[in-house]
């Protein structure tokens, strides 16, 4: 890539990112709706003490992903305080935060220099399972991290400091830009995969 190509690539990247962001803004519900069973499945694997239900509420820019968790077994907050089965906890997360990593990933895949349309299509196809991986590592655990914050607050109400689990650290990582880092890494992995398997494309 020559020095004169770089500014053009940057402008293409900004335009692509803006276009995908607008699509995410207006079509957040149908786009993320495809992933809800997958998100619920991962949450069920990661937190089997609860029965999880994920839904989309609101429309457009006001849409939120809502997680309702019903406790299936007693949960000890301290030696004196235990949450009983049947208690329902609810957390919400704005859908644009969940779509942002996918927008970053596909923006990179759409502007990455290729030598043929076939290679571009292969790159975008590789991006689909990568998108599932990125979303699976971010959204379910961000929702569970928000749930853990609620449990921390309940414990503090009873004057008990609950040990901080790893999922809170992962929530902080994702919310401070780690989700974008995962998306960029996924896009670069797709690029590497296509270039390795199709060197003459």
Note the overall shape: elongated
Structural class: alpha+beta
Which range best describes the helical content: under 10%, 10-25%, 25-40%, 40-55%, 55-70% or over 70%? 55-70%
Q: What's the number of extended β-strand segments? A: 5
**What is the total domain count?**
1
Roughly how many Å apart are the termini?
Answer: 17 Å
Radius of gyration based on Cα positions: 20 Å
The portion of residues forming beta strands comes to: 5-15%
User: How are helices and strands ordered from N to C?
Assistant: HHHEEEEEHHH
Unreliable residue stretches:
196-201
Biggest pleated sheet: 3 strands, antiparallel
Oligomer: single chain
| Major sheet: arrangement of strands | 1-2-5
Q: Tally the helices: what do you get? A: 6
Overall mean pLDDT: 85
Keywords: Membrane, Transmembrane, Transmembrane helix
Task: Please describe the topology of this protein.
Elements: H1 5-26, H2 28-33, H3 36-46, E1 50-57, E2 64-71, E3 75-76, E4 82-83, E5 88-94, H4 95-111, H5 117-157, H6 166-197
Helix pairs in contact: 1-4, 3-5, 4-5, 4-6, 5-6
Folded structure, characterized:
It is built from 6 helices and 5 strands; from the N terminus they run αααβββββααα. The two termini are 17 Å apart. It is an alpha+beta fold and 201 residues long. It has one domain. The longest helix is centred in the C-terminal third of the chain and has 41 residues. The strands form 2 sheets. The chain has a 3-stranded antiparallel sheet.
């Amino acid at each position: 890539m020559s020095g004169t190509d770089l500014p053009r690539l940057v402008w293409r990247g900004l335009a692509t990112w803006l276009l995908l962001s607008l699509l995410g803004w207006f079509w957040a519900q149908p786009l993320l709706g495809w992933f809800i069973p997958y998100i619920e499945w991962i949450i069920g694997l990661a937190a089997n003490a609860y029965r999880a239900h994920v839904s989309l509420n609101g429309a457009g820019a006001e849409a939120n992903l809502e997680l309702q968790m019903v406790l299936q077994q007693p949960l000890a907050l301290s030696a004196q305080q235990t949450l009983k089965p049947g208690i329902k906890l609810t957390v919400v997360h704005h859908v644009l935060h969940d779509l942002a990593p996918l927008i970053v990933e596909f923006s990179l895949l759409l502007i990455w220099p290729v030598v043929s349309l076939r290679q571009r299509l292969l790159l975008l196809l590789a991006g689909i399972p990568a998108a599932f991986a990125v979303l699976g590592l971010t959204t379910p655990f961000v929702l569970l991290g928000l749930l853990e914050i609620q449990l921390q607050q309940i414990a503090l109400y009873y004057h008990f400091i609950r040990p901080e689990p790893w999922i809170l650290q992962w929530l902080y990582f994702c919310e401070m830009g780690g989700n974008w880092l995962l998306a960029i890494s996924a896009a670069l992995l797709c690029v590497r995969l296509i270039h390795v398997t199709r060197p003459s494309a």
